[in-house]
Every structure is written in structure tokens, then in C-alpha cells.
Amino acid sequence: MSSILAGVRHVSSRLSRPRVLLLTILIPFLLLVAYLSTPYDSSFRAFYRFHRHTVQGHLGGEYAWINFAGRFSVDIEEDVGVIIKTGYGTRQRVPKLLAALAEEDLIADTVIVQDYPAELEAGYAWPDGSAVPTIDAMGWMIENDLLKEREHSERLAKYHSLVEVIQTQDWAHAEDLARTVGWELDAMKVIYLLFPV
Fold it and tell me: What is the distance between the alpha carbons of residues 167 and 153, in angstroms, rounded to a whole number?
């Protein structure tokens, strides 16, 4: 340990004041050039941003980050859309979600994505009675030939069997089927969300 301190003292004794001043200016300048010349998502910039926010958080308290102005302004009515992803087994939750969203003035920018045909049931409505746009993700992908039969044949068969049971109005069997295969159809809705409508 003493040899390290001796080495530091030796180097610092060899640096004159102009050299120390030059290094004091040059090192921050080089760091700034490195920061500005790297891509926004580089590890160097991410490291800097992370530690800057950590220091700001410690200086301002635990929830200080909430009070920082965002980089871009967000207008809730213009910039935010809500996608409600549901299935046959969870459809009873949607009216409560719609009631909560109606209180937040998000009526115009909400769409429901589900895994069974919308026309098989009465559909969803806002508390004022207006209809909510509802999309059958699986049906849309089948109609637009976006699913290759070989790759998704098992899930497509499960979708078709659920649709058939709903059409025959065997509600108990439809509920049981939704419980057993609903998670697989739910995964297919994620594929739908990757395609531009």
C-alpha cells in the first residue's frame, strides 16, 4: 500500500501546475467528446445516464424522479392509446376496465383485442352505451393469411373448436375450453399486435 502512495506522490510531484490545469480541462473535454460521438443507446451513455439519475434521486429524495420534467411532453388525449387484451375466459373483466377508462377520458383511443369472434356476443360498450371497437385477433390473422397452417396448426384447431362451442351456445363447455386453451390463444394475440392494422 505504501508503494502505491509513494508512486502517486511521485507522479503528482512531477506534474506542474500548468499540466494539472491542462489535464483538468482536457479530461472532461475528452469525456464530453466521447459521450457525444457514441450512439444514444451505447453502454457508455447508458452508464452515464444511470449514474446521473441515481445521484439526482439521492439528492432529491426517494421519489424525486417523479418531479423531473419528461424529455418529451405527453398529451394524454392525443398521444395515448389503450389496447385491452382479453379472451373468452376473462371477458367479464372488460366492463369494469371500460368503466375505469371512461372516467379518464380515454374513450376515443381504446380498442379491445380478443381471441374469439366479436360477432358471437353482444360486444362491449362504454358506460354511455357507445360501442367499443373490438377485434378478433386470431380471426383477423387467419383472414389475412398471416399464420402458416403448419406452424400454428394445433393452436388454430383449438381456436376453431372454441369458436364452434361458442356458436352452439354451450356456455359451460366454452368456459372449460377457455380455461384449458386460453393461454395458448393469448400467446397468439401477441403475434397479432406485431402486425400493423
Answer: 21
pLDDT per residue over 62-101, tens digit each? Answer: 666 667 677 778 777 778 888 888 888 888 888 888 888 8
Rounded CA gap, 53 and 64, in Å?
10
Parse the chain into domains and list their residue ranges: 2-67, 76-193
Alpha-carbon dihedral sign for residues 67, 73, 76, 79 = negative
Name the β-bridge partners of 110: 82
Cα–Cα distance measured from residue 167 to residue 120, given in angstroms and rounded to the nearest whole number = 7
Residue 69 amino acid letter: A
Beta bridge partners of 113: 85, 135
**DSSP, res 103:** T
DSSP assignments along 107-176, one per residue: STTEEEEESS-GGGS---B-TTSPBPPEEEHHHHHHHTT-S-HHHHHHHHHHHHHHHHHHHTT-HHHHHH
Q: What's the mean pLDDT in 145-165?
A: 77
**Cell 453502454 -> residue:** 43
Cα–Cα separations (whole angstroms), residue 74 to 59, 70, 84: 26, 8, 21
H or E element at residue 183: helix 171-193
Q: How far apart are CA 182 and CA 153, in angstroms?
A: 15
User: Residue 172 burial (CB < 10 Å; 0-12/13-18/19+)?
Assistant: exposed
